[in-house]
Specification:
It is a single chain. The protein is α+β, with helices and mostly antiparallel strands. The protein has 14 helices and eleven strands.
């Protein structure tokens, strides 16, 4: 029986009935478990690395598959054990809604990334991946990207591959195939690099990281429903009118210009999308009321977060409207009998290593 599986059992026993344990609790459990391991199990673990990666929001309106932003709230934790075994990758999942996350490494975002990195390493070892979900799957807040990004960073460190963060973005994007069917890099770029990212090119791969105004924050409302990324992508048209494409190009340019000029009103104007959002509206009941309420309460702009169902509103902290915007968004969903979770968050840092053994 593997060390990873034994640890998972210890974690389940300790955390049974709750999904809100802190990272410190996660590390504490592991440390106490390691102390109880026998000599054989200790010897089987060659190294242990843990990394965290943040929730993210992609698209931000007009920047479909191009824009991403890391959020300062909600994180996934990925613990990687390098073990003496037959080059296999094993995945275990705990935390928030683990039943929604496959443990087959061929279908799990973190597992796909781990297998790809282990292949280029050429090392004769196995990997045990323990994922603690802090970002709810199917929320539109980059849940799959958080696991992929944390896995990329942790495996790179554990196997001492020496890859740069931008190189790791390409591997993390491979993991998105499990969730979206395509290796898109908007969420994982933000999750690894942090703050606001723009995909410039896929071949060759180029990504730009930009700061955001210090007074920029996001109010996010996440309805209780789950919306799979693959389903949200399936409703998108293969072709769009030229006028809609021109609209999105101009609005995406406005968003970037607003970020660089510290102009939140310009950024808000840039969040108008005609390529994806009109086709996804039917998948998110109450969306029109949520957007209208947020704007009337003082938001600079509103858009579906990623593929949804979360809705993201840009607010200026200096105007102190975030509480009213949050209330309006909650009421917008409430008109349709939909409960939702809400939070106020800011652009934040990317993934980081939090433990090495």
């Amino acid at each position: 029986m593997s060390a990873g599986f034994e640890f998972r059992r210890a974690l389940v026993s300790r955390n049974k009935g709750t999904h809100n344990r802190s990272y410190e609790s996660f590390s504490e459990i592991f440390s106490k478990y390691v102390q109880r391991l026998g000599k054989y199990e200790k010897a089987s673990v060659l190294s242990h690395v843990e990394a965290i990666a943040p929730a993210t929001s992609a698209n931000l309106g007009a920047g479909f598959d191009v824009f991403g932003v890391a959020l300062s709230e909600l994180f996934d934790t990925v613990a990687v054990d390098v073990v003496k075994s037959d080059n296999k990758v094993k995945v275990f999942v705990e935390g928030r809604n683990p039943e929604l996350v496959p443990t087959d490494p061929e279908k799990n975002t973190a597992g796909i990334v781990a297998k790809a990195l282990m292949k280029i390493s050429g090392k004769n070892c196995g990997l045990v991946i323990n994922i603690k979900k802090g970002v709810r799957p199917g929320s539109g807040l980059g849940s799959s990207a958080a696991s992929a990004a944390a896995s990329a960073l942790a495996v790179n460190e554990a196997l001492q591959l020496g890859l740069t963060r931008r190189e790791l973005v390409k591997f993390a994007a491979l993991g998105e195939v499990a969730a979206a069917g395509v290796p898109h890099a908007d969420n994982v770029s933000a999750a690894i690099l942090g703050f606001f990212t723009v995909i410039i090119s896929h071949d060759p791969f180029e990504v730009l990281q930009l700061p955001m105004p210090g007074n920029a924050a996001f109010v996010i409302a996440t309805p209780e429903s789950v919306l799979e990324t693959s389903k949200a992508r399936s409703v998108l048209p293969k072709q769009v009118p030229l006028s809609d494409a021109v609209h999105n190009i101009s609005r995406a340019a406005a968003f970037v210009a607003g970020a660089l000029l510290n102009n939140l009103n310009l950024m808000g104007m840039g969040m108008s999308d005609l390529i994806a959002e009109p086709y996804r509206t039917k998948l998110i009941p109450g969306l029109a009321d949520v957007k209208r309420g947020a704007i009337e309460a003082g938001a600079a702009g509103v858009a579906i977060s990623g593929s949804g169902p979360s809705v993201l509103a840009l607010v200026d902290l200096s105007k102190k409207v975030e509480t009213e915007v949050l209330k309006a968004m909650k009421e917008g969903f409430g008109k349709h009998g939909i409960e939702c979770e809400t939070m106020v968050t800011k652009p934040g840092l990317g993934a980081k290593i939090v433990r090495r053994e």
